[in-house]
From TrEMBL:
<dbReference type="InterPro" id="IPR013815">
    <property type="entry name" value="ATP_grasp_subdomain_1"/>
</dbReference>
<dbReference type="Pfam" id="PF02785">
    <property type="entry name" value="Biotin_carb_C"/>
</dbReference>
<feature type="domain" description="ATP-grasp">
    <location>
        <begin position="125"/>
        <end position="345"/>
    </location>
</feature>
<comment type="function">
    <text>This protein is a component of the acetyl coenzyme A carboxylase complex; first, biotin carboxylase catalyzes the carboxylation of the carrier protein and then the transcarboxylase transfers the carboxyl group to form malonyl-CoA.</text>
</comment>
<dbReference type="InterPro" id="IPR011054">
    <property type="entry name" value="Rudment_hybrid_motif"/>
</dbReference>
<dbReference type="InterPro" id="IPR011761">
    <property type="entry name" value="ATP-grasp"/>
</dbReference>
<dbReference type="InterPro" id="IPR016185">
    <property type="entry name" value="PreATP-grasp_dom_sf"/>
</dbReference>
<keyword id="KW-0067">ATP-binding</keyword>
<dbReference type="GO" id="GO:0004075">
    <property type="term" value="F:biotin carboxylase activity"/>
</dbReference>
<feature type="domain" description="Biotin carboxylation">
    <location>
        <begin position="4"/>
        <end position="472"/>
    </location>
</feature>
<dbReference type="GO" id="GO:0046872">
    <property type="term" value="F:metal ion binding"/>
</dbReference>
<dbReference type="Pfam" id="PF00289">
    <property type="entry name" value="Biotin_carb_N"/>
</dbReference>
<dbReference type="InterPro" id="IPR051602">
    <property type="entry name" value="ACC_Biotin_Carboxylase"/>
</dbReference>
<dbReference type="InterPro" id="IPR005482">
    <property type="entry name" value="Biotin_COase_C"/>
</dbReference>
<dbReference type="Pfam" id="PF02786">
    <property type="entry name" value="CPSase_L_D2"/>
</dbReference>
<dbReference type="GO" id="GO:0005524">
    <property type="term" value="F:ATP binding"/>
</dbReference>
<keyword id="KW-0092">Biotin</keyword>
Length: 472
């Protein structure tokens, strides 16, 4: 079926919805967008009206209502659904429903079986260990035997001591739990047995399953990612490099992402940073081949101060920060890589059409997440009205935002107050940092809340942390 015969339901909002729409137009694929009443002023609504054809925009009561989304898809004559990120992006039940309903649609993402397989962190850890991929020490399945639990806990304590951690700890958690329920930290090996028994009994009472997981918490690390892309054959995955996402809020939410993940030619590391980047790419590709991965995905890693990588999880979706990897990537020597367009194209059945040898990278990219929040108050979201949002256009700057540039915008309280993504390119680390600061210093972002208090944003936080990007 030619791409031009398809129509994609954009089952998301804001800047990611806009990126999906633009990718569809680039590919000559029709689309239908959705919005809620709270999002009526969002840029994705305006773009859908300007760029879409007949039945290109529908109001829904919620982005979380699968029944409503399916009704829109049917009414608009859609052939596929793109979930973006968040909402239904990693919900294998939703993906399965999309592909198995009476009026079948294509789910633009990995197959539902892969989402289910890699969405289970215990299963992912077991799969990784079977391939010799390093994972964080601890159990890869629920533990029901006290003696086995003690052996695992001992190995976790010993590993941390080898890392030079002054006060090792073990996490003991109910395997059937969630939302932070049924978790305790153990610092004293002699206390492990009593904590294990307490969590096991709690799990049995609360969840009717006394399985317990024993894990390590690594606190001094860099957070790296590997961007994987593969077509529906699942046999030829390629990578679009690495990213470093270590500059985060106190709640461990990413605020600055940098591609590539380290700069071994420009910065000194206490370990072989180039080798680490090669290793995590090779490990990620090995897992992708093993499961027959068939769309875009991100393998998330932690790298310790000793330069030891451990797989954390796999995100079976497009990520917010895909654009910074695309910005430094070249396919057949050409700029302008669009990973969302690639996702749509291969999701609709086209072959990848290139190999790893055809992909190269050039320069360094920074992605700033511009957010209405108060970094000095635990990154508390700010609610109010943006009155001015302006920046100086540059050839090295890409701005992705659903916020109107030249008119006031009321931030919806129903969603996270993410305002924009600013992607900066430079030929090297010094240039990209200088350009990043130039952008932030010239940015005009002003507004006030209902009490007349001025807008709070993370711009100063981004400025303060630009100097330390890619440093461990």
């Amino acid at each position: 079926m030619p791409l031009s015969d398809h129509k994609v339901l954009v089952a998301n909002r804001g800047e990611i919805a806009m990126r999906i729409m633009r990718a569809c137009r680039k590919l000559d694929v029709a689309f239908t967008a959705v919005y809620t009443a709270e999002d009526a002023a969002s840029g994705h609504v305006r773009l859908a009206r300007e760029e879409g054809g007949e039945k290109s925009l529908f109001q829904v009561s919620s982005y979380h209502d699968a029944n409503e989304l399916m009704a829109v898809a049917d009414e608009a004559g859609c052939t596929a659904v793109h979930p973006g990120y968040g909402f239904f992006a990693e919900d294998f039940r939703f993906a399965r429903r999309v592909t198995k309903r009476d009026r079948k649609l294509i789910f633009i993402g990995p197959s539902w079986k892969i989402i289910r397989e890699l969405g289970d962190k215990i299963n992912t850890k077991r799969l990784a260990r079977g391939l010799g991929v390093p994972t964080v020490p601890g159990s890869d399945r629920p533990i029901y035997d006290e003696m086995e639990a003690e052996r695992i806990a001992k190995s976790v304590f010993e590993f941390q001591e080898q890392q030079g951690i002054q006060r090792p700890l073990v996490l003991v958690k109910a395997s059937a739990g969630g939302g932070g329920m049924g978790i305790e930290e153990v610092y004293d090996p002699d206390q492990f047995r009593s904590v294990y028994r307490r969590i096991r009994n709690y799990a049995l009472r609360q969840f009717k399953d006394e399985g317990v997981l024993i894990e390590q918490r690594i606190t001094d690390f860099n957070h790296l990612e590997v961007q994987i892309v593969s077509d529906r054959s699942g046999t030829n995955p390629v990578h679009f490099g690495t990213r470093n996402c270590s500059i985060q809020s106190t709640g461990l939410q990413k605020r600055i992402e940098v591609a590539p993940g380290f700069a071994p030619d420009e910065l000194e590391y206490t370990f072989n940073a180039g080798r680490v980047l090669t290793d995590i790419v090779d490990y990620s590709l090995a897992m992708a081949r093993k499961v027959g991965y068939d769309n875009v995905g991100t393998w998330e890693w932690i790298v310790t101060r000793k330069g030891e990588p451990f797989l954390m999880e796999v995100n079976t979706r497009i990520q917010v920060e895909n654009g910074v990897s695309a910005r430094i990537s070249r396919v057949h020597g050409k700029e302008g890589v669009d990973l969302i367009a690639e996702q749509v194209r291969i999701g609709l059945g086209q072959p990848l059409g290139y190999s790893q040898a055809d992909i190269a990278s050039e320069g360094v990219g920074i992605e700033y997440r511009l957010i209405a929040e108060d970094p000095d108050n635990n990154f508390t979201p700010w609610v109010g009205r943006i009155e001015h949002f302006q920046w100086k256009d540059q050839p090295w700057l890409t701005m992705l935002t659903h916020v109107p540039r030249n008119e006031p915008y009321e931030i919806p309280t129903e969603f996270d107050p993410n305002l924009a993504l600013a992607i900066i390119w430079g030929k090297d680390l010094d240039e990209v940092k200088a350009r990043g600061l130039e952008f932030l210093n010239n940015l005009r972002l002003e507004g006030q809340n209902g009490a007349g208090e001025p807008l709070k944003s993370n711009v100063d936080f981004l400025k303060a942390n630009t100097g330390r990007i890619l440093r461990f």
